[in-house]
């Protein structure tokens, strides 16, 4: 049977861990009470002489009769062993908090350990109540704000619907009016055409309709009184939206009363109702707002569910700990204390349950066409259970990979491809493509190890990366993808060697790597719902965001993936070689100078080596622009220094002289020190000299501190692998390629190792701020009055 402490540890919400009942601490205190009540050794006491020489067979009968008589004929109530009093505390300003304090009767008054136990128990109860009340208030305010947003959205949708009907009904009358206007004596240059006047009037009426709809929902406009118009009736200045205090403060962003609509949606609807194509653009923005509000309701429902789980787990913890106390003390104190717990705020309040029911009904009505089953799919997505079939295929493909790789080593040795003159042809045609798949599979394997470790250490990576829980990749799936890729690659390598040994022409056999790459691309972009389509499309979407970094808001998953690309520059260089090899049709002519010594190819080497660092630097600039945090500019300097070091190393590989050697050493040392500092201090949050864990940080996920010290040393060693480019200990072209592949693999391993501690640090930051659900930015958001 699993102990409750382990069960609680497995079920509690990681981000709220510090707010739960400290069950282990209370258990230790009960153990102290038990030890304090143990009788002293008998040798210290004189031997007592009893008149009874032994126990009688009728003793159990006498005890039972005595117990029944006490229950039947006793009329007096048993005195309370303890009293739990509730008092008001208004030290925190206007907020009045309920503080629970236990008073012990004479039975326990002389026992210090019991006093300490109930003092700590009261502290835990007050802590749970306080946190539950704060979260309940936050979620209730969020619910009120979402209802107000939904009302405004419904009004605007109705306006667009009415406008569409009027436009359709008034189109014929407008044509007849235009034809009569051509026969009139008025000049178009003097007073303006009637068509222009009607358009201005209709635009003004549309603006007034939207303003009235917003004002009916409690939204006022700051500068509406001073808003002047042109001669044609069009406004000269834009309106700004003012949301009342009760609505603006409900978002948890403080008591600021000034709120404006996002420029992409609400104010443009008010100020420019015909911009960008009229109704179509406005309708698209309304649909965008509806999607945002729907996501906000999903997150609200998730938060309410977590708070409900929080209450139930804490209630169970209090019940378990009081039963343990009764067992140790031999008294029945649990009933009295648990009555007080059940009357406390986190158990007695039903606001969370009622709000959950309200959210279900609102979501069913507005976002699921009154289909409750469809609504619950959004609100309570089903988590796919780990399938044993996935584990079976992981083992199967792992065995196939090992067997095929052994066959490949034997065939390569027998055919002498690494010793004969054919080695140049083989390494130039086969090595780049197969290296791409090998590095990709290794990276996938490391990501699977990350998922496994994050899951076991209860790091909420799906929340950090904002993955959908029902489609997020699990570690078994990552291992399956990696083993499948490697099995396919090694099988293609074996087939390639067999066909070469069978006497097939080199131009035919050397197309196998290209066919394999083409199959992989087709699987990646396959539109059918198979082969992990949500994961594939998410990967493509993230790549798009990375390439277009300055034009998309940067999320955690975006810059996390961009960091992965900075460790896969050799893979990108191999893709360049493969693309050039097949586009230049070198597999037919076997002339490799086009791709190795061509000017365009050599210039592209700089571009490809710079691109990951450039994208990451652009993300830092965008984050600085959005968040106004100068740390992002300092982080950008790290990638600029890495970009310079990468370019200098390429130049040194082509122009081997002392000048470029000195430049390589200087640029690489600066970039490495910059990267190491950022790895340890910023990304991992380590090297804190004031931490209670020497040179680490105060909060650690792993219990053994030595893992962190070893990880620091390992990251340091792998970061200086660039020294090989300076030493240049190579013997033959084959060994040179193999050494490059080994160094690229070590960098992938370093990145996988870095990933765990980076996400761990992010998780601990969320824990410090109790962030367990996303705060979706609504169409109305709090802003300063100066905007």
UniProtKB/TrEMBL annotation:
Membrane topology qualifier = Multi-pass membrane protein
Q: Which compartments is it annotated to reside in?
A: Endomembrane system
- What Pfam families does its record include? EXS (PF03124), SPX (PF03105)
- Alphabetical UniProt keywords: Membrane, Phosphate transport, Transmembrane, Transmembrane helix, Transport
Domain called SPX: residue spans = 2-339
Q: Where is this region: Disordered?
A: 163-207
Q: Which residues form a coiled coil?
A: none
Cellular component terms (Gene Ontology): endomembrane system
Show the taxonomic lineage.
Eukaryota, Viridiplantae, Streptophyta, Embryophyta, Tracheophyta
Q: Does the keyword DNA repair apply?
A: no
Its family? Belongs to the SYG1 (TC 2.A.94) family.
Family annotation (CDD domains): SPX_PHO1_like (cd14476)
PANTHER family in UniProt: PHOSPHATE TRANSPORTER PHO1
What name does UniProt use for this protein? Phosphate transporter PHO1
Instruction: Provide the transmembrane region boundaries.
Output: 390-411, 431-453, 478-499, 511-532, 659-678, 707-727
Q: Where is the EXS domain?
A: 596-787
Query: Where does it mainly reside?
Result: membrane
Q: Where is the composition biased (Low complexity)?
A: 169-190
* Gene Ontology BP term (one): phosphate ion transport
Q: Which domain of life is it from?
A: Eukaryota
Q: Organism source for this protein?
A: Cardamine amara subsp. amara
């Amino acid at each position: 049977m699993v102990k409750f402490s382990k069960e609680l540890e497995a079920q509690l919400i990681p981000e709220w861990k510090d707010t739960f009942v400290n069950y282990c601490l209370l258990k230790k205190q009960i153990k102290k009470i038990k030890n304090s009540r143990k009788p002293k050794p008998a040798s210290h006491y004189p031997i007592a002489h009893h008149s009874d020489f032994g126990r009688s067979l009728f003793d159990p009968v006498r005890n039972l009769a005595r117990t029944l008589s006490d229950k039947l004929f006793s009329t007096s109530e048993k005195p309370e062993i303890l009293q739990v009093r509730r008092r008001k505390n208004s030290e925190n300003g206007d907020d009045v908090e309920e503080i629970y304090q236990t008073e012990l009767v004479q039975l326990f008054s002389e026992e210090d350990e019991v006093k300490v136990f109930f003092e700590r128990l009261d502290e835990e109860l007050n802590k749970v109540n306080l946190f539950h009340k704060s979260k309940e208030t936050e979620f209730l305010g969020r619910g009120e704000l979402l209802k107000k947003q939904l009302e405004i959205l419904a009004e605007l949708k109705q306006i667009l619907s009415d406008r569409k009907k009027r436009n359709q009904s008034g189109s014929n009358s407008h044509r007849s009016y235009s034809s009569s206007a051509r026969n009139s004596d008025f000049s178009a240059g003097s007073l303006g055409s009637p068509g222009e006047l009607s358009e201005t009037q209709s635009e003004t009426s549309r603006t007034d309709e939207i303003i009235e709809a917003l004002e009916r929902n409690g939204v006022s406009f700051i500068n509406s009184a001073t808003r002047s118009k042109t001669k044609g009736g069009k406004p000269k200045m834009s309106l700004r939206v003012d949301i009342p205090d009760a609505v603006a403060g409900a978002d948890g962003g403080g008591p600021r009363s000034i709120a404006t609509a996002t420029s992409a949606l609400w104010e443009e609807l008010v100020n420019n109702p015909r911009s960008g194509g009229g109704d179509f653009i406005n309708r698209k923005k309304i649909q965008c707002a509806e999607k945002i509000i729907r996501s906000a309701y999903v997150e609200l429902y998730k938060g309410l569910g977590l708070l409900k789980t929080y209450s139930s787990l804490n209630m169970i913890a209090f019940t378990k700990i009081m039963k343990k106390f009764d067992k140790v003390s031999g008294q029945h104190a649990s009933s009295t204390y648990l009555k007080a717990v059940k009357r406390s705020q986190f158990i007695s309040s039903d606001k969370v349950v009622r709000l959950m029911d309200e959210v279900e009904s609102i979501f069913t009505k507005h976002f699921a066409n009154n289909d409750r089953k469809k609504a619950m799919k959004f609100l309570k997505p089903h988590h796919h259970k780990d399938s044993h079939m996935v584990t079976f295929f992981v083992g199967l493909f792992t065995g196939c990979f090992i067997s095929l790789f052994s066959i490949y080593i034997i065939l390569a040795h027998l055919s002498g491809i690494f010793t004969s003159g054919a080695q140049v042809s083989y390494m130039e045609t086969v090595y780049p493509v197969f290296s791409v798949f090998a590095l990709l599979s290794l990276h996938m394997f490391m990501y699977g190890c990350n998922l496994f470790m994050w899951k076991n250490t209860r790091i909420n990576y799906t929340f950090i990366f904002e993955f959908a829980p029902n489609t997020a990749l699990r570690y078994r799936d990552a291992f399956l993808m990696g083993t499948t890729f490697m099995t396919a690659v090694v099988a293609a390598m074996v087939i390639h060697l067999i066909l070469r040994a069978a006497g097939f022409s080199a131009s035919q056999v050397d197309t196998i790597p290209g066919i394999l790459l083409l199959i992989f691309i087709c699987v990646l972009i396959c539109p059918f719902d198979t082969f992990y389509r949500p994961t594939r499309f998410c990967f493509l979407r993230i790549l798009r965001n990375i390439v277009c970094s300055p034009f998309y808001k940067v999320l955690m998953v975006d810059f996390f993936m961009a960091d992965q690309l900075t460790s896969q520059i050799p893979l990108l260089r191999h893709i360049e070689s493969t693309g050039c090899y097949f586009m230049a049709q070198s597999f037919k002519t076997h002339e490799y100078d086009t791709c190795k010594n061509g000017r365009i190819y050599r210039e592209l080497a700089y571009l490809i080596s710079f691109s990951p660092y450039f994208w990451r630097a652009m993300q830092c600039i965008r984050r600085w622009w959005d968040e106004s945090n100068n740390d992002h500019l300092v982080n950008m300097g790290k990638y600029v220094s890495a970009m310079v070091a990468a370019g200098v190393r390429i130049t040194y590989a082509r122009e081997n002289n002392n000048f470029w050697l000195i430049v390589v050493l200087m640029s690489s040392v600066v970039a490495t020190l910059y990267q190491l500092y950022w790895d340890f201090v910023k990304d991992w949050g380590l090297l804190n000299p004031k931490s209670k864990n020497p040179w680490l940080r105060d909060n650690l996920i792993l219990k053994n501190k030595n893992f962190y010290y070893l990880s620091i040393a390992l990251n340091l060693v792998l970061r200086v692998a660039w020294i090989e480019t300076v030493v240049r200990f190579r013997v033959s072209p084959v060994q040179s390629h193999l050494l490059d592949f080994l160094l690229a693999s070590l960098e992938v391993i370093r990145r996988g190792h870095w990933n765990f501690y980076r996400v761990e640090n992010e998780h601990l930051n969320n824990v410090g701020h109790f962030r367990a659900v996303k705060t979706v930015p609504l169409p109305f958001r709090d802003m300063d009055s100066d905007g």
